Amino acid sequence: MRNLFLHLIFLLCLIPGAAGETGGIFRYGQVSSGPADLLFRASEGSDGAELFLGSDTGREWELKRLIFESSRFLAGNMKPRGLFARMAMESLPPGGESPGETGWAPDRGETNLNNPGGAFFFPRRGGIFLEGTDSSSLRSGLWYSLPLGRYMNLEGAGHSCRLDPAKAPEEWFPREEPGPAGTLWHTAGDLNFQGPWYAGSLKGFFSGGEHYLPGSALLCELTLYGERSVLTGLYWEPSDVYRNREGQLIPWERQFHFRLTRGFPDFQLDAGALVGKSSLSSLQEVVLSQDYRCSLEGSLRRWTWRLRGQGLIDPEEEVLLSWIPRAKLGYRLKHWDFTASAGGTWEEFFPDPAEVSGEVAVRRKGSPGFAQSLSAGYRAERDAGDISIRGEARGGVKNWTLKGRFLYPFLLYGEEERAFEIGWDLEWAF
User: Fold this and answer.
1) How far is CA 66 from CA 16, 18, 165, in A?
2) Is 289 helix (H, G, I), strand (E, B) or coil?
3) Which end of the chain is least crowded, N or C, by CB within 10 Å?
4) Are 210 and 219 in contact (CB under 8 A)?
């Protein structure tokens, strides 16, 4: 309780600074098994503050998230964007998502304040930053942006930190030897361009340091826009000694990502493929992989539907390593929503599915601020299976909202049994 008292004092210190703010929320939630959380957020335009506390037992409170942001400054939980996000990746994202412009943004999904940071934004475009790391030193760096005419832009970024000696790996056949201690730096440049029906970029990355060989990586992106379609392609090729910002070697020699989004009168198609060639240094063998994804979703009168599938193929053996289908069907009738979904995971070397799941749910939206939902889900894996019944009700008066929920699990087989839970959240918007 002493920790909660100290955090609430800090919270009260934030409120006077938030006086005159255009909005904010104060929320407290707890479940019967003990965990609780408290959130305070106040903002005015681009300026704001956020505090999130969590407790596993409801007694000892821990600071999980803290954010201060303005048009010139950001501190607390941060996430990298643009070139900084690309420096951290080991593989292209399966969906080909773009991390946006280079810089830093608040990380409201993070609930662990182990590595906080701070960034100062220059009046135009660019800035400097400090970020905590898992090692004993801070990561520091800067970024800038320079417009080159109406349709082109040049971005640059760089940072460095000192890494501690890596721990010995626990697996028998590690992909690489533990990295040495010492200073590790990264620099990157991005020349991006945009036109009426296209957009693209050419990115170059460089790594090196005190005990690290200089490495490089090339990333090319191109997007074409049609009347109802969008076609995106990415190509990534790192060198053998290029390392990401955590000091890890990249397992891929090259990767190519393709994605097509096409709209039709009654449905939309989203298809993509991620093809790569990897070299595992510990086994001295080359591995090829092809990851294909496809999604179809649409609506017809009161009905909505969505079909998704993902397949991982070994092109050398010409076998389907895994297949993950998903399907969802919905129906809306006035204030009622009915949905049913199902999916599973099948693998080549096992006769039984690795995972099968399904859910049926009904939701009702009444007057503004009031809603109820009830669902029953089924989950079966090789070593465990259960049925879960969930319910939720939400109601509000003026600026106050109260939400209650429950979870009743029924174990079918296995040893991992979950307990019955009841939870509630109280929120005040100001």
Assistant:
1) 17, 15, 29
2) strand
3) N
4) no
Residue pLDDT, tens place only, 311-332: 888 766 667 778 899 999 999 9
- Look up residue 108 and give its amino acid: R
* Model confidence pLDDT, tens digit, residues 359-369: 999 999 877 77
Q: Which structure tokens are listed for 345? A: 């995971």
Concatenating the DSSP letter of every residue in 316-337 gives: TTTEEEEEEEEEEEEEEETTEE
Pairing, β 73-76 against β 62-69: antiparallel
pTM (2 decimals)?
A: 0.82
SS (H, E, C) 82-128: CHHHHHHCCCCCCCCCCCCCCEEEECCCCCCCCCCEEEEECCCCEEE
Q: What is the largest CA-CA distance in the chain?
A: 66
What DSSP character marks residue 399?
T
Report helix, strand and coil shares of the chain as percent, to nearest 5: 5, 60, 35
Q: Which two tokens stand for residue 246?
A: 């955590």
Residue 98 contacts residue 92 (beta carbons within 8 Å): no
The Cα–Cα gap between 80 and 82 comes to 7
Tokens of 415: 């040893």
Average pLDDT per block of 10 residues along the chain, 430 residues long:
48 46 84 86 85 82 88 90 89 77 85 80 89 80 91 93 70 58 90 92 93 92 92 92 87 88 88 78 51 88 91 74 90 92 86 88 85 93 89 90 93 80 92
Question: How many C-beta atoms surround the C-beta of residue 114 within 10 A?
Answer: 9
Structure tokens belonging to residue 310: 């993902």
Nearest Cα to Cα of residue 166 among 139, 140, 134, 141:
134
State the Cα–Cα distance between residues 427 and 39, nearest whole angstrom: 9
The pLDDT tens digits for 125-152 are: 899 999 887 766 789 999 999 998 888 9
Q: Which residues contact 2 (CB under 8 A, 6 or more apart)?
A: none
Nearest to 235 by CA among 249, 215, 247, 220: 220
Pairing assessment for the beta strands 355-365 and 336-347 based on DSSP bridges: antiparallel
Length of the chain: 430
Read off the tokens for 398: 């003026």
10 Å Cβ neighbour count for 119? 21
Nearby residues of 317 by Cβ (< 8 Å), 6 or more positions away: none
Distance separating alpha carbons of residues 175 and 170, to the nearest angstrom: 11
Q: Is the dihedral of CA 111, 116, 117, 118 positive or negative?
A: positive
Q: Which of 134, 132, 110 is nearest to 119 (CA)?
A: 132
